[in-house]
Automatic annotation (TrEMBL):
This is Glycosyltransferase 2-like domain-containing protein. Residues 16-80 form the Glycosyltransferase 2-like domain. One of its GO terms (biological process) is protein O-linked glycosylation. The gene is HaOG209018. GO terms for molecular function: polypeptide N-acetylgalactosaminyltransferase activity. It comes from Helicoverpa armigera (Cotton bollworm).
Amino acid sequence: MCVKRLKNALGYFLKQGLTLARLRGARAARGDVLVFLDSHCEASHDWLRPLLERVQHKRDSVLTPIIDVIHQTTFEYEASETFQV
C-alpha cells in the first residue's frame, strides 16, 4: 500500500510541482511527525534527533535546521557549530 501511495505522489509531483506534491503527501501521511527533506540536502549523523526533541516539547512546531555550507568555489565544508530554533 505504501508503494502505491508513493507512486501516486510521484506522479502528482511530475504533473503539479513540488509544493502541491508535498501538500498531497502531507494529507496522505500516517505517522506522528512529518519531515520533508529537499533533494539537495544530505542528512548527516543524528540530524533528526534534535528536531524530534523540539517537536516532543511542542507538537505543532515547524522547524528548520541550520544548514551546513559548502563554499561555491573552493568546495570547503563549513559545519554549523550549534543547533538553534
